[in-house]
Structure formats: structure tokens, C-alpha cells
Amino acid sequence: MRVAVVGATGNVGTAVVQALHERPEVSSVLGIARRMPDQTAEPYSYADWASIDIGAAVAPAEAIAHLKKAFADVDAVIHLAWLIQPNSKRELLHRVNVEGTRHVALAAAAAGVDTLVVASSVGAYSPSPGLEVRDESWHTGGIPTSHYSVDKAAQEQVLDEFAAEHPEVTVTRLRPALIFSAEAASEIQRYFLGSWMPVQALKAGRPPLLPLPKGLRLQAVHAADVGAAYAAAAVTGAGGAFNICADDVLGVQELADIVGGGKRVRPVEVPPSMVRTAMSAGHLTGLVAADAGWLDMGMNVPLMDNSRAKEELGWQPTRSAADTVAELLDGMIEGAGADSVPMRPRDASRASLPAVVSASGDPARAGDGAAMGSAGAAGSAGAEGTGGPAEAGERISPVVDRELLGLYLADHLTGSAAGVSRIQRMAEANVDTPVFAELSMLADEIRTEQHFLEQIIHDLGLAQRRHRQAAAWAGEKVARLKNNGVLVKRSPMTLVLEVELMRSAVLAKKGGWETLRDNADLLGLDKQVFVDLVENVDRQAAVLDQVHAYARRRAFRTDKETFTPLE
Length: 567
Known about the structure:
The protein has 567 residues and is an alpha/beta fold.
């Protein structure tokens, strides 16, 4: 079989690619996403790849045509793509999530695909807040105050209509519980908690009390188990709906025990209305990424019976919900992730360094001492231990003025801090444009390079002068207050100006890598690393040139929408 996975780089998509690789019936996998992963890293190396927008910034006919072409030699399609953020862009979310599902289904039928497996959710179900367990016959009307749930219910209706119109296609829908894994920890924190939530503080100690909504009960499932369920559905061709969840149900005491990590933590049950008010305020102020609709859904979806999946798919959960949530929490504390943009680790030292491959042939990590010469690589690996930076600093030639070197690298790090903030904002602001994928992948690269420069400064035993980076970060935020002539919506001129600033920043970065390249021997650094990084800057500049070409044609026009799908 050849199986296509739409949305193959996120939490579930990554697990599905791995699970399909392990099925002997599957000979090849086609991964489809807007943003490409590191195709040299597992499990992404197991698949062929295509960048296709299912509806965020292209007209429906174009999306369907691209998908149909990709599905030409495919036996089964697994559709997982779903846009979680931004919460405020309801039209965009519906266009991608509901209409995008329609595009995938129509393309699959047009290409002659036999089986279509779609990611539905426990969130599609109508309210059932008690402890009664429901099977797949429970009504899928959604939770009205949750936009995610409303769209999942609408997606189910699209599938009902499609199945009636195309009986030649086997339509399967999986309705999983909350899907967690260590590798998804940073992604989940960004989407639901936000960067301000101090989850990492749990590494230092656990709280004695844990406030939780009264009556909370939840089901969860490990991403690897969900991946196995999707793979089984694609291979067996079993149609209909399947609940996917672990066998145990977690209440407030079980959740408190998990957070305690072996230490006693007492749950404090808080009225859900109070939690909802606090969550709404946190979301409005930007402290919490998820809106209150997610709480409404969590408190009201039914508990699911997973027996049909066990009987008809031959599926079994291999991890309990408790173990899965504990793994997620540990992953959040450590800042874990994977080698795709959606699953990028919070801890940038875990990310692959763009364009740099280690001596073993694997992608080099931003925090693994990739820049240190062979004589000092062992010392650089001690960055979190003792002696690493001092040993590396001793390898700097005595003819080098360490003060000048420190100032130079600190200045570049300051510029990098502002650049990272700007490019990340550019990507977020343009999620509904054709240039989003390029901006988002570029933002991930530049963020990793910033951490790599921090690591070089650390390994050379130099001061980082963090106050400069903080000032640059704040300055970039203040610069956003320019309205470019438009106060209540995005100005078409903004993207042009921002790209021009980023091109200047990228070229300045190139000068920094060139300087380190030409002084590598004096600094005890690996020259080839910087040769690779210099070449990579040229590619990054070319990406910005393409984005600028898109933006400048729309910069001053009143007769063409800049931020809607291209006609």
C-alpha cells in the first residue's frame, strides 16, 4: 500500500508516519503539510514529502487540484490537518478545518482513493458531563461554546455528506481523547498554556496544592497508540467511527498525583465558573493561549467506550492515561520536541542546527557543541556541567582580544534577539497568506541559530550581556506600535517593511558567520560549521526575496485583498 498523510508533521502526524513505517502492508508513505520537517530525521525520513495548502491561503479549486495530483497513486488517505490557533480568526479556522476536510475528501474521490481515514475527536460529541460511558452512536452535535468542538461537529457533517455522495470510498473517522506524548510537550504548551505559564518551575519543586475544576474527569491516549490506530484503520479499510482512548479515567486526585511526581499534592476543587472566568481573563491578556471554550469542552464531553476499536481494528492501548499525562508533564518541564516546525522544542538546544550535519551524519543540535573544534568538543559538551566553558576559553589564541571578541558576539546576539522576535511575529501575523509556510520555517531556523550563537559565547567563556538582548526584544515590541496608516486591521504595507528589515538583519548575520569562519582557527572553532551557515544565509535571503515579491505587489492596492486566498 501507499498511504498519504495530510498534516504529517504535528503530534499525531509524526506518530502516524512512524506507525505506518512499522506496518508490513505499507510500502511507502507520502507526508503532506504546509511546512516541511527535517527530512533527514526519523520518522520524517521514512516518507516522501509534498508541501500543499488545503485551504488556508489558496482557492478551493486549487487546493483540490494539488491534492488530487498528490493522491494519484495512493491507496489510502489519512487526514489529520487541523489549525488550532489563532483562536480569534474563526473564519480562517473554519476554512482550513471544515472546508479543508471537504477539499481532501473530494480530491481523494477524484483520484480514486479506496479509503479515507479522518481525524475527528471526542470534541465532536454532544454534551454528556456525567460518568456514563458512551459508544460511537452518541450524537455528534458538539459543545456550542467551544469553537474546536463546533468545527469538529461540522467536520462530521461534511463526512456524512461525502459518504452519501461517494459510496465507493470507505470513510473512517477516529474520535480520540486528549493525545499526548513527550515529543508533543512544547507544541501543546504553546497551543494551550502559552509561553508565560511556569511549567518549567516544576523541575525545582512541586506545589502542595493544585486547583482544578470541580468534577473534572478526562481520558487521554498516547500519540504512539493513536498512530497505531490510524495505521490499522488505513490497512484494514474498516469503515465507520471509532473511539480511541486509554482504559483509565483521570479525576482530580489522579491528576494531582501525577503533578506531585511521587510527592503529596492535594487537589483543591474550584467551581468551574470561577476557573472559566480566570481562563477568559488570562486569554484576553495573552497569558493563556487557550480560550474558555476548551474548558467547556473538557467538562462536558462524554467518557468514551473504546471496545469497537479493540474488536474491529485489533487495536489496544499500550500506555495508560496516567502514564501518558505524566510523560507529557515531564516533556514540558524539559522543553522536549521533535524535528518539525509544529513540534519544535521549547528548549532550542534540542533543535537541529540549520544546514549543519555532525560527524556522525546526523543533524547537529544547537546545544551539542557543534562549533567546537575536535580538540575541544568534549569540553564544549560540558556546557551544563563544570569546566566546559573554561576549557574552551583557554583554547582561544593569546593574540585575540577577548574583550573585543565578547563585544562583537554580544552585539550580534543582540541583533539576533530582535530578529527572532520580528520573524516569529511575521509568521504568526501571516498564517492566512501563501507565504506563511516559508516565514514559519525561517523563523524556526533563525531561533535555533540564535541559541547556537548563545552556546558559542558560553563555550568560549565570554559574557552574554543579557541586558542587551532584553533591550532589543523590548525595542522590537515597541516598534510594532507603528500603524502604517491602519489602526484596526493589518496594513498591506507592513509585510513589505518587515521583510526589508529582516533582509538587512539576515545579511548582517551572514557577516557574523563569515567573521567567525575566518577566525575559527584562532578561536578553536570548527571552520566548516560556519562555511555551512554562510551558505545557508544565502538560501534564507532568497526566501525573504520571494516573500517580498509577494508583498510588494500588494503594498498599496485597494482593489486586491492581501490576506485572503488567492484567486
